[in-house]
Predict the structure of Transmembrane and coiled-coil domain-containing protein 6 isoform X5.
Amino acid sequence: MWSRRQGRLRPVVCGVEELRRRGREREAVLRKARREQQLVSKRLLRDDAPEEAGEGCVSAILGETELQVQQLLRQAQRGTEEKRERALVSLRRGLQHPETQQTFIRLEGSMRTLVGLLTSNQALLQLEAARCLHELSHSEQSTVAEACLPATSYLLTYLSSHSSDFIELCLYTLGNLIVESEAVRRQLLPQGIVPALAACIQSPHVAVLEALGFALSQLLQAKEAPETIIPSSILASTLPQHMLQLLQPGPKLNPGVAVEFAWCLHYIICSQVSNSLLIAHGALSTLGLLLLDLAEAVQRSEDAGLELLACPVLRCVSNLLTEAEVETVGGQMQLRDERVVAALFILLQFFFQKQPSLLPEGLWLLNNLTANSPSFCTSLLSLDLIEPLLQLLPLSNVVSVMAVQVFLQQSGLQALERHQEEAQLQDRVYALQQAALQG
C-alpha cells in the first residue's frame, strides 16, 4: 500500500507502467535489505558457539543416525539433572544442522519426549528443551515447523513466565514458527496468541519487547492477516495503543523496539482495515514527532542504523495521509506544523549521503504532505527548500519524477489560490455593483 498516493503521477519522464515496475523493483530491494538486516527473516538466539561443545559432542552428532539421536533422548530422560542437561545441550547443538533436524522429526515419539522435558519442573531442562525447539523453529523446512505444533500451547503458556530470558526465547521461537506455516497460525490463533502477545507488551524488559515486536510482525505479515487476524484480533486488543506509546519520542524510546513496532504499525496500516481508528488514537501526531526526533538524531550522529527506523515511519505517515478519513478525524491537524517539512528535508539530505535507496520514501511523503495542502506548499518557499529539492532531480528517473510531482502540486495550488482570490474579488465587485444599482 505504501505506493498509494494522493496525487496521480503525470507522465513527465516515464509512463505509469514503468513507474509501477520500478516501484515493484524498489519494494523487492527493500525486502531483500530487510532480510539481510534480520528484520523479517527468522531470528536465532545462541549464547554459545558450536566449537565450545565438550568431548567431541558436536563432531559426533553432525552426521547422526537415528540411533544416536535416540540415545541422546534417552539420556535426557534418565540420570542426574547434570547428565540430562548435557544430553540436551548435545542434542541442541546437533539440531543446528538440517540433517539432524530431519532425523529428529522422523523419529517416533521424539517431539513428545522434548515436550515432556519442556514441561518438566526442572528449570535447566526446560530451558534446554526450549532451546532445542528454537533450533527446530529456525529450519527452512515447513515440515520441521509443523512438527513443533505439539509444543506451541506450552510456549504460549510460558509467555507469562517470571524469567524474561525464557519469555524472550519463547517469543522468538513462536515468531519463527508463525512465519513458516499457515497450519501453525491456525493452531496458535485459537490458542490465544494475540492476548498472550498483548500481555507481553507491558513488560519492563527491552529484550522482551523487541522479541515481541518481531513475533507480532511475523503474524501481521501472514497472507490472511488483513481479512482475519487484524480486524478480529489485533484491532480488538490494546496492542495498537501500546505500540503508539512505544513509538513516543523521549528518553524511554529504544531504537530496537521502535524499529520492530514501526514495522508492525506499517503492516496494520497497509491492511486498510481501520486506519481512521489509528488516526483517532493520534498515530499521525506520534509519528510526526518521531520524524522530528529522527531529524535531530541524524544531525547529532553518523549512525547508519537510523534508516532502519526512518523507513517504516515514513511509510506509515505517507499511507495514513492517503486515507479519505484523514480530514474528518483531524489527521491533517496532527501534522499541521512546518517543522515536519523541515525535518523531512534533513532526512532527505541524510538519505542522499548515506542511503540513496530511501530517497523515494521521503519524496513520497513530501508528495502526500503537499497534496491539497497550501500550508505545506508555502513551507517549501518560506523555509527556502526549493533549491535542495532541485538538487535531487539528476539522481534517477524515479526520484526526479517524484520531485517534479511536488513542484507541480505546489504550482497548481498556487494557481488555484490565485484563481480563488480573483473569484472572490469578482464576487465582491458584483455585490458592490448590485448595491449601487439598488441605491
Summary: The chain is about 70% helix and 0% strand. Confidence is low (pLDDT under 50) at residues 1-14, 30-40, 49-60, 412-423.
